Amino acid sequence: MASPFANVLKHTLLNYKPVTTSRLPHPAKRIGTVSYITDLKNPSNSADYLIITSPAYYNNPDVAKLANHRAEYNGFDVAVVKTDNIYTQFTESSGTLSIKAFVKYAYYNWSAPSMSDNHPGYILILGDGEEQYTSYVPSFPVREVIPIQTTEAVSDPWFVCVNDEGLHYNDWSPDIMIGRLPVENGTNATVIVNKIIQYEKNPLPGQWRNKTVLARGKDGADLGYIKDDLISAGFEVTMVSSYEGGTGGDVFKTINEGQVFAAYSGHGNPPGWGMGGGINVAFHAGMVNNLSNGDKLSIVFAASCETADFLYPGSPRTPDCIGEAFLNKEGGGGIAYWGASGVTGLGTDIYIAKAYRFMVENNPYTFCLGEMTLNFYLQYWLLSWNLLGDPALTTMRVVPEQGKAELEIQLTDIDFEPIFSKPSQLTKITAKIHNYGDISASNVLVKFFLGDPANGGVEIGSQTISSIASEGEEEVDIDWTPGVPIGAYKIYVLVDPNNIISERSKENNKAYKPIEVNIYQTGWPQSYPEMITYSPAVGDIDGDGYFRGYCYFSWEKGICLESSR
To answer: How distant, in Å, are the alpha carbons of 81, 457, 512, 542 from that of 412?
Structure first.
């Protein structure tokens, strides 16, 4: 499998060099191992997926159940470690610094056989952030300067910023996907773990997987521009706006019907959305506890203050923050919650837009939660946004039908060599085709087009795959000489274009990836040796003696060039 950065940087960097990938959502051919590791400084330790928990939960059966699920479902080597071993073997001035020191050691010294870079790819903190619970695992206190004030919050992503010279603040770019299950007791652990396993192993099909709700409270952003992106990707979008009479009851009703994603922009605090009075949707944790949406579980985003504050002490009415309530709700609620633990500023709707756009552009059908959050952290150094959920969680908009193949291709399955092409340069186009169904697919025709075949695109090649095994994948490639004027184009790949193979859906059989045809000098572009994901890049790319800044498609995209320093 790829490192956590593979799909993220394919989305962010136009000249990211492709690596061999195998996406996560289907049961892996490799069965991983589960280890309860006590000698943490042993460099022979192995972990693709690391669970950090308290001594009281170290031997908890639900922890074991989730660890075994990741080993079987993803093929991960899973390591379970407890905090008291961390504290005694990595003696720093605080528990949080000890955890950071351990994570950094494991990243640079342990192996990770399922990750292409051999570094641990996922960390799950299983435990609450409040000291009174036996499940206590601390989170790091951070101070962030936002447009209106300096805010204090807590940060789990800080633990996985390991590319620094010490343990403090000189690195704000996470290197590992991280999430937390903020369980307070054994009942919470059982509920959340069972929901995760059921969600992935026995996914409930239906139209709900193409539905999302966008809610707007007081001073929240107009999310209409996000709606347009989602509709273009085939989603059915419900808008609930306090400025148009929308209420918390409308949010409750919509989520209860089943929404694969739910998002909110506006004022908030730990108990809920829009709880400050006035023009507001007023949707709170108590209402979440009354949801009955069953297995139609939402992934929830909130551009709002403090709604993911898992240190919130609570009250008799709302004992947890709303983010925890979504996870802890048995028989409904949510499967994950992503939001801020502290005060946020205006304009944070862009973070919701980023999350949706990463999915729509990059992985519109099969979606890994940790990749979305990692993409965000690499572009915005706001580590007070925490993922309450499993970073390895995957969701599928198309659930395979029993007794059928289910073929799929997405943007990240298409690669070019070279990444940019001259008009007369031979270019290799590679496409990876997945079969998530429970039977094999034979004689799978794959066609390549310059432009959308539904709108006059020209076929530039085809290949036939003799067989793709159940839960397997195969690659095909063609050679193409552009022979077109300089400019930006889209290469489309269409799988089973004649509809010969029986599947639940054909919507995920088509994908495209942009390609630039230009006159770059020999050897360009080159990748920058350090991690850098912002733009623009500057250089004499075409060799005409003039330096220019380049930024393609949108401001968050960039090209990395070799440093001349």
So the answer is: 33, 21, 9, 27
